[in-house]
Amino acid sequence: MKRANRTPVCASRTPPRLSIHNPKKGHNTNYLNVSKESAAFWRVSINNPPLNLVDSRFIIDMHELMDAAEADPDLQVIVFESANPEYFLAHWDLTDDMSLMADQTGRSAGVRFPFHFMNMVVRLSKLPVLTITSLRGRARGAGSEFILATDMTFASRERTLIGQFEMSAMAPPGGGAPSRLARLIGRNRALEVLIGAEDFTGPQAELYGYVNRAIPDDELDAFVTAFANRVARFDRTSLIQLKQWVNEITLPEDRELQPQGDAFAEALSRPAFRSWVTEAFALGLQQPGELEENLAARVPLSRQPRSIT
Q1: What predicted TM-score, i.e. pTM, was given to this entire model?
Q2: What is 14-273's CATH number?
Q3: Cβ–Cβ under 8 Å, residues 223 and 215
């Protein structure tokens, strides 16, 4: 498998961990810049340049964030945004071999999934605070699945592209998208998103119910901040109860998710996927440029339908 022209996270020197549970206003992990807007409201900016790829270090940072959130008696709402206006979370980092995750098996309650990303998004969906995505830029594959695990999403009308591109890369989504999308937008539309593997703009995503609202880009930050500040003034116990009641009705059962992760892992070893990876990296996958900008439109790259004989 040809790798991108950057050092895989798992091979680099592990950066020092910074305590995220800090009473001061600002503090960072490796990829998450956390600002406490108030005791009840945290803003988290994702910053993993150049594309905000999802990798092992991001998962570890998210678990540290969730450890701190669960331990904070005042926290009510977390807003996730991107430091890169072109990429919210591009997709899974195919150069990551997950070796950093060796000591992370005990980080989430309940079912333990072999696919560590699944553990993280399941825990995120059940976090006892309200989680809001302020979506600006591209969010494909694992990026979309991260967003689906948050409680609500407000998207830039002009600068959003979101989708599950995996099928055009010869693999099914493996982070829970089939279960979450079917509940969120309905069976027919979920199948269109998952099997069609195309990008959805902000207005298209709003129409389908993929996001809560598409908001003009120059109004997005102010809207999300005002909404989060409003929620932060409500009763915390009631907020947690409401989220728990809705979760019981709408979240997928853990047993649904394991086969999806298994199918994704199995697809990664198939010749069709390995061929796609080789070609995609040769064309600039995981590097800034035209391929990543238009990934859903460019795949399945050179693969052509079989002719009738």
Answers
A1: 0.89
A2: 3.90.226.10
A3: yes
What does the alpha-carbon distance between residue 165 and residue 193 come to, in Å, rounded to a whole number?
9
DSSP state of 34: E
Number of residues that this document lists for the chain: 309
CA distances to 17, 31, 35, 40, 42 from 23, rounded to whole Å, are 17, 19, 11, 12, 12
Helix, strand, or coil (residue 90)? coil
For residue 220, give the 3-state DSSP assignment.
helix
- Given the DSSP bridges, would you call strands 26-28 and 32-38 parallel, antiparallel or unpaired? antiparallel
Residues 196-221 pLDDT 10s: 999 999 999 999 999 999 999 999 99
Rounded to the nearest 10 degrees, how much is the dihedral formed by the CA atoms of 248, 167, 199, 226?
30
pLDDT 10s digits, 221-257: 999 999 999 999 999 999 999 999 999 999 999 899 9
Residue type, 224: V
- Give the span between the Cα atoms of 178 and 190, in whole angstroms: 7
> Residue 129 and residue 122: Cα distance in Å, rounded?
14
